[in-house]
Task: inverse folding
């Protein structure tokens, strides 16, 4: 007999029946030790974050020199001023870590990294066969199952609807994502908004279950076991659908409202409006318990930008901005900064919304980590020498993070850490004892420097 | 289950306990706070055996943390886990250890029977499952299989279903979704099988095979919830694509795709087409139609024009710079804003030539405003026009001929009437044009929906035809009457709930989700013979044969043979197998990974599964996935070199299979290889000759000192022998790497460097290193073979001899695949030889072992490995691998031949070379220079069973030569071929099949086709038997 555990073990692939969800394969929430799951939000941005843009303006002379020379450094954020674009997080500094010095050479860089920044492999310009492993977000989603398992949201290329994403639920498998707030809302809350679609799936599954079940009587041995397994698998999915339908009432309470401008993909919505609406859906999905892991591609080089301060009436492109080519008379660097500020505003909203949501003895944010990072390293044409991370971590986060500016030793020297080390840290801290996640760095390997395992200073 | 000296054949009753020694020890379980486990007992007889052979080490001394004298004290799960481990150790004869006293055969069997029975009580035995895996295939005694002792046992395979492979999954959906893939073959674009990408969307392939060498595709995998979850989404996407894209696309063709679906959706499609046509017409001409309808009132019905407000251009502060986005960006943005058509049409229309820039902007804005475009969109367009009108005007003038005018062409009268009526009905004062259009369309949509409702559901007859049509498309057969009836009820339910289109989609999904779609069916039919075996049903046989050699469903001849009763004898099978093996009219992509990398030399005309057997057996495609350091490679374009070396390994295998003589010996012992060669000797010779002609012509001209006038004297020659990017008629033109003169000198420098050293044939790589490839990419493959590009004994006619190489095991592709990122891997290389070629077995690594090669910056890898493995505990396994793997130490981890091993540690650095070359050219070598130690590649071959072959070997070349001569190696490869084509491990009752296959190989002069024919016409393949519970 197949059991729940067996099913989940074998359900790591693909999307699900009911809502054309990107990763609808895990129904049963597995709470953490105190009954509350951990949550992870990965926010991918394009066009790099220059390491100097993250440097603290109020660094002491010594720290500034160390930082510029890319030497190891750790500074308490308390008493320090944040860079202008990060000021939105000023009141949450205790939860903030600015992590510098990770390298990402095993990932693809330059303009795009596609799946690779979250999988630590070369993505061969987004070809399917190059997807070497399950990306980190899906690995974490396995540890904290939920009805949707994992949700991917994306503004990449300015598309709308359900389109291919960058996360990978398994090798050589590409996830799907919701590319506009309305689609995300309709799909995530489908059992509330369109229960008929769910019911018709169940008609089909019921027919298949009965048809396949009839075959059992005519066979024996291993084939009989096989057939029973298949029938049970169908049954599990039916139960999963029924359970989600049963959750409709509680889901309805969290149904986010969207303004009319987001109808039909929201082609006329401004960038701040789109981001705010997507953030609302994201927070609603977390509050409703539909998922514990979200990957949010907040932009890529093809995302149209409009309505930011300075460019209120223009539409600008991130790719030309990365080449210092500007629009509307506004220098490119100013617009780039405004883009980052708009991102930080979303992080701030998520933090504050989750902090305002009670959970257990604290709030939802206590168990949440938000990671904001460039998909392609340190500049518009990143080479992966550095891959800066802005991390917001709740008080119950299982890592020793918060209130710090950390610069790790640069690539190629003793003690340097890669993106793979960072992801290994996340996995090890949350129950996956993997020795090392991702491809190794070849320069570290060439120099015979240790590069395997978690970043010990972050392990709680 | 075929005959196997396995656990189930043992006489359980003989060992059932008569006198039980109760070893229950509930205390420990209680300590653990668990429920008391069920009692456990050895019989007297079994306890004696355990005491004699096990308890010396595994009593309270607990060697390896294992204790067998108090199993009853363990919690049930721990006890079952331990019993499983003991069962494996005893079954695989790893225990007792060789130095200890061994049980006689009947004692070992009695112990196994006891363990099996004990595990069976809880349905917990894992050994049977393991034995079905390919990596455990060698545990069936090799000598017994080929001894002839078991030749009289009747071979058969169990009735079974076999989960489709990743390749069959792709082929099925490519077929169903009419997806065509093309690739280059002999410089022509041809349609190929084996594509994995779809034009408009992607599917999730849940049937990926494990990435191991050997046999990857086996019939022991089950359909799980994971597969099903993925297939649900795949089915949804495929059904939408079928009904919403493919069916409408082919609806009007002479032979429409899925005609019954067309018929069912006919009314809806007609309505959709009408709506689309009216929408398009109105989008272009609504202003004109409205003006015609409303005449003088038209203007007053329009909304009041309100121009958008733009943010003023900011003033730059001191020192601030503003770099306006270039033209290509702005034109692209104009297109994204869907403003390009109006802008270019107006700017290229002589009627509007009089408009100033401001007048033009206002003209556009008014059009967009009255059309009802969103204010923000208009703002973005106007902001763009504010900065770029002069540039757009220039583009429009340059391209005026290409810009097609939209000419007013009224629709048929009845359509125009419907449009006029709707506009009259719906237009209100102040309406934007888009609002009028949407109101009209909404009205028509409602009307059409009512018409469809009045038409009623499709008839039962139409549904029956639909069911038949979809069943044929997806399951490739008509439904049985009972199935047809079931599906009829289902599709009616769907239609009632969802409407026609969704119902058709749902029915498609139902077929795709049937187990029959994802499982290959292989069942016997007809009367059983004296052994209880039945022949495969003709339909199942046709699929079994098709999938044995290809990833496609049966071809037409095979279908006909099955349907006309010509697939019922061994001779029928033989005829069809030989026919399919001889086909050369199908082109197939060899490797989807290479195709994804846009690698063109990737097509074969051989039956793909024949070629794939050897590429998977050797496992060299893994070289594509290993992550190597470009600097250690020595230069750039490592990826191209890796792609080429793998595709040239494929070419070599293909060449030897096409020759089909002494295939196994040649694969292991050939000294001829393809190196930077596309297999076409004529083309390669011509390309090489051209370089030699250029060299000979300019050699003594003093070209190094040419200026334009001197070069211009040779224009006629340059016309005859075009050189890369040099335009003889405009020597000052060129590319980003220089003008004609500079490129000429770059080329001559490269040519001279190659040919001044007495090279006979010039490898025809590009004349200089530039972007892309002028002739053929991957010339850096030379570095993997250890050749300098300026000193390369290349042959235009290949395969050609390469020094220090012998067979596939010395091919750089294989050597890279069996290496670490930065080091060689003697253990894995030796394991391959032991298991794949010598039919040996090596136990799993004990979980307590932390397999690490110690670091020592002054020792070779061999010495470091030896220090860690040549001790008592490790050596019992490692002696089966290391002495074989050491022989390959004459190649580094890129597969380059070497006599010295570079000690790549910082303290051994002799010369640091730059990480990036300033001027990338063909001759760069960026490898840092380190101190070295001499390589010791001597090894030791054991296990061929032939004294003349076993013994000390000098290096891999020596080893490969001996392996190529070994009978056991030949037999081992035939065993793997059996597993590959039968999808299961061989057992003793397959002895006749294997002996016959070897005989067929020998009698045919080493034809692998003969092996395939023998296997696919064997009783093991043809005969099936129902498995027992």
Result:
């Amino acid at each position: 007999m197949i059991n729940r555990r067996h099913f989940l073990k074998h359900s790591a692939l693909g999307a699900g029946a009911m809502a054309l969800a990107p990763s609808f394969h895990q129904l049963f929430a597995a709470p953490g030790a105190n009954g509350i799951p951990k949550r992870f939000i990965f926010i991918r941005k394009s066009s790099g974050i220059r390491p100097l843009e993250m440097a603290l303006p109020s660094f002491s002379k010594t720290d500034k020199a160390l930082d510029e020379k890319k030497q190891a450094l750790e500074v308490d954020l308390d008493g320090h001023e944040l860079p202008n674009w990060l000021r939105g997080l000023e009141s949450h500094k205790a939860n903030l870590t600015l992590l510098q010095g990770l390298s990402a050479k095993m990932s693809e860089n330059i303009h795009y990294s596609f799946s690779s920044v979250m999988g630590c492999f070369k993505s061969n310009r987004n070809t399917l066969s190059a997807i070497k492993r399950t990306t980190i977000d899906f690995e974490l989603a396995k540890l904290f199952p939920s009805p949707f398992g994992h949700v991917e949201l994306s503004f990449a290329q300015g598309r709308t609807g359900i389109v291919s994403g960058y996360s990978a639920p398994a090798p050589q498998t590409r996830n799907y994502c919701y590319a506009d707030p309305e689609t995300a809302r309709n799909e995530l809350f489908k059992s509330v908004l369109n229960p008929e679609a769910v019911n018709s799936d169940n008609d089909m599954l019921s027919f298949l279950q009965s048809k396949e079940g009839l075959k059992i009587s005519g066979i024996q041995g291993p084939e009989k076991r096989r057939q029973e397994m298949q029938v049970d698998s169908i049954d599990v999915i039916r139960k999963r659908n029924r359970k989600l339908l049963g959750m409709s009432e509680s889901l309805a309470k969290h149904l986010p409202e969207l303004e009319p401008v987001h109808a039909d993909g929201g082609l006329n919505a401004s960038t701040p409006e789109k981001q705010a609406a997507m953030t609302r859906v994201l927070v609603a999905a977390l509050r409703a318990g539909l998922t514990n892991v979200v990957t949010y591609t907040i932009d890529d080089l093809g995302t149209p930008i409009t309505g930011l301060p300075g460019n209120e009436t223009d539409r600008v492109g991130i790719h030309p901005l990365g080449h210092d080519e500007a629009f509307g008379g506004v220098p490119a660097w100013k617009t780039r900064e405004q883009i980052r500020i708009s991102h930080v505003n979303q992080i701030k909203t998520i933090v504050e919304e989750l902090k305002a949501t009670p959970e257990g003895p604290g709030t939802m944010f206590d168990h949440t980590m938000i990671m904001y990072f460039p998909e392609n390293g340190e500049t518009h044409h990143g080479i992966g020498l550095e891959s800066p991370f802005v991390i917001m971590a709740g008080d119950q986060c299982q890592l020793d993070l918060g209130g710090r500016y950390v610069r790790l030793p640069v690539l190629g020297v003793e003690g340097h850490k890669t993106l793979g080390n960072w992801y290994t840290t996340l996995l090890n801290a949350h129950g996956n004892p993997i020795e090392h996640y991702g491809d190794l760095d070849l320069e570290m390997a060439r120099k015979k420097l240790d590069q395997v395992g978690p970043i010990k200073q972050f392990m709680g | 289950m075929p005959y196997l000296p396995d656990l189930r054949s043992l006489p359980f009753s003989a060992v059932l306990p008569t006198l039980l020694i109760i070893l229950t020890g509930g205390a420990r379980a209680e300590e653990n706070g668990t429920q008391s486990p069920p009692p456990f007992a050895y019989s007297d007889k079994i306890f004696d055996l355990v005491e004699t052979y096990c308890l010396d080490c595994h009593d309270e001394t607990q060697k390896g943390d294992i204790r067998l004298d108090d199993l009853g004290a363990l919690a049930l799960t721990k006890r079952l886990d331990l019993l499983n481990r003991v069962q494996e150790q005893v079954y695989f004869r790893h225990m007792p250890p060789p130095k200890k006293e061994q049980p006689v055969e009947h004692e070992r069997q009695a112990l196994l029977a006891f363990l099996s029975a004990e595990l069976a009580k809880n349905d917990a035995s894992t050994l049977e499952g393991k034995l079905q895996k390919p990596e455990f295939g060698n545990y069936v005694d090799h000598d017994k299989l080929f001894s002839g002792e078991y030749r009289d046992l009747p071979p058969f395979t169990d009735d079974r279903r076999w989960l489709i492979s990743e390749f069959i999954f792709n082929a099925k959906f490519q077929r169903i979704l009419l997806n065509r893939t093309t690739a280059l073959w002999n410089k022509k674009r041809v349609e190929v099988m084996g594509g994995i990408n779809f034009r408009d969307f992607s599917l999730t392939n849940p049937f990926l095979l494990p990435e191991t060498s050997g046999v990857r595709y086996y019939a022991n995998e089950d359909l799980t919830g994971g597969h099903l979850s993925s297939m649900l989404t795949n089915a949804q996407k495929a059904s939408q694509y079928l009904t919403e894209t493919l069916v409408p696309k082919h609806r009007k063709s002479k032979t429409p795709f899925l005609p019954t679906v067309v018929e069912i959706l006919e009314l809806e499609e007609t309505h959709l087409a009408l709506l689309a046509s009216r929408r398009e017409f109105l989008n272009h001409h609504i202003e004109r139609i409205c003006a015609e309808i409303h005449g003088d009132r038209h203007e007053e019905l329009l909304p009041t024009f309100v121009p958008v407000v733009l943010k003023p251009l900011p003033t730059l502060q001191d020192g601030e710079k503003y770099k306006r986005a270039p033209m290509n960006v702005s034109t692209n943005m104009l297109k994204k804003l869907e403003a390009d058509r109006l802008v270019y049409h107006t700017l290229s229309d002589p009627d509007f030539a009089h408009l100033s820039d401001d007048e033009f902007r206002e003209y556009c804005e008014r059009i967009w405003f009255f059309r009802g475009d969103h204010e923000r969109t208009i703002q973005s367009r106007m902001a763009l026009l504010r900065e770029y009108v002069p540039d757009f005007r220039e583009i429009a003038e340059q391209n005026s001929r290409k810009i097609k005018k939209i000419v007013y062409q009224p629709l048929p009268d009845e359509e125009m009437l419907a449009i006029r009526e709707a506009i009259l009905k719906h237009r209100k004062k102040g309406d934007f044009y888009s609002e009028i259009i949407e109101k009209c369309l909404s009205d028509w949509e409602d009307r059409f929906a009512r018409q469809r409702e009045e038409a009623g559901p499709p008839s039962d007859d139409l549904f029956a035809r639909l069911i038949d049509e979809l069943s044929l498309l997806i399951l490739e057969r008509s439904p049985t009457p009972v199935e047809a009836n079931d599906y009829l009820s289902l599709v009616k339910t769907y239609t009632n709930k969802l409407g026609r289109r969704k119902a058709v989609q749902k029915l498609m999904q139902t077929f795709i989700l049937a187990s029959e779609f994802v499982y290959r069916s292989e069942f016997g039919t007809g009367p059983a013979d004296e052994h209880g075996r039945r022949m495969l049903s003709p339909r199942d046989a046709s699929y079994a044969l098709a999938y044995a050699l290809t990833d496609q469903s049966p071809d037409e001849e095979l279908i006909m043979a099955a349907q006309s009763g010509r697939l019922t004898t061994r001779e029928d099978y033989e005829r069809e197998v030989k026919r399919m093996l001889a086909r050369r009219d199908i082109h197939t992509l060899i490797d989807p990974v290479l195709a994804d990398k846009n690698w063109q030399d990737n097509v074969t005309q051989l039956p793909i599964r024949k070629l794939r057997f050897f590429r998977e057996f050797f496992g060299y495609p893994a070289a594509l996935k290993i992550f190597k350091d470009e600097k250690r490679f020595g230069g750039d374009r490592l990826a191209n070199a890796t792609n080429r070396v793998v595709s040239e390994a494929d070419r070599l295998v293909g060449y030897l299979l096409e020759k089909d003589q002494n295939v196994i010996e040649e694969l292991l012992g050939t000294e001829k290889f393809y190196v930077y060669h596309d297999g076409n000797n004529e083309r390669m010779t011509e390309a090489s000759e051209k370089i030699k002609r250029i060299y000979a012509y300019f050699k003594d001209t003093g070209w190094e000192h040419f200026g334009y006038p001197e070069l211009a004297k040779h224009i006629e020659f340059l016309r005859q022998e075009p050189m890369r990017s040099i335009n003889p008629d405009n020597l000052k033109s060129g590319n980003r790497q220089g003008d004609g003169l500079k490129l000429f000198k770059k080329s001559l420098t490269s040519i001279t460097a190659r040919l001044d050293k007495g090279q006979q044939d010039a490898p025809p790589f590009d004349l200089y290193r530039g972007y892309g490839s002028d002739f053929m990419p991957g010339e850096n493959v030379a570095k993997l073979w250890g050749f300098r590009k300026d000193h390369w004994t290349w042959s235009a006619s290949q395969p050609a001899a390469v020094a220090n190489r012998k067979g596939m095991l010395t091919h750089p592709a294989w050597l890279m695949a069996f290496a670490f990122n930065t080091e060689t891997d003697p253990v894995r290389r030796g394991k391959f030889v032991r298991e794949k070629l010598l039919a040996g077995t090596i136990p799993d690594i004990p979980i307590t072992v932390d397999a690490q090669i110690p670091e020592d910056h002054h020792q070779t890898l061999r010495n470091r490995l030896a220090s860690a493995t040549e001790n008592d505990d490790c050596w019992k396994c490692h002696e089966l691998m290391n002495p074989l793997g050491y022989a390959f130490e004459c190649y580094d981890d890129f597969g380059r031949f070497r006599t010295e091993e570079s000690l790549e540690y910082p303290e051994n650095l002799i010369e640091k070379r730059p990480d990036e070359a300033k001027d990338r050219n063909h001759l760069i070598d960026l490898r840092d220079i380190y101190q070295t130690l001499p390589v010791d590649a001597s090894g030791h071959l054991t296990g061929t069973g032939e004294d003349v072959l076993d013994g000390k070997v000098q290096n891999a070349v020596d080893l490969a030569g001996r392996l190529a001569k070994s009978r056991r190696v030949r037999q081992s490869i035939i065993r793997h071929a059996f597993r590959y084509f039968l999808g299961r491990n061989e057992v003793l009752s397959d002895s006749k099949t294997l002996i016959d296959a070897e005989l067929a190989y020998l009698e045919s002069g080493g034809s692998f086709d003969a092996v395939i024919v023998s296997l696919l016409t064997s009783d093991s393949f043809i005969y099936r038997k129902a498995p027992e519970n």
About this structure: Confidence is low (pLDDT under 50) at residues 1-33 of chain A. The first strand of chain A starts at residue 39 and ends at 45. The two ends of chain A are 40 Å apart (CA to CA).
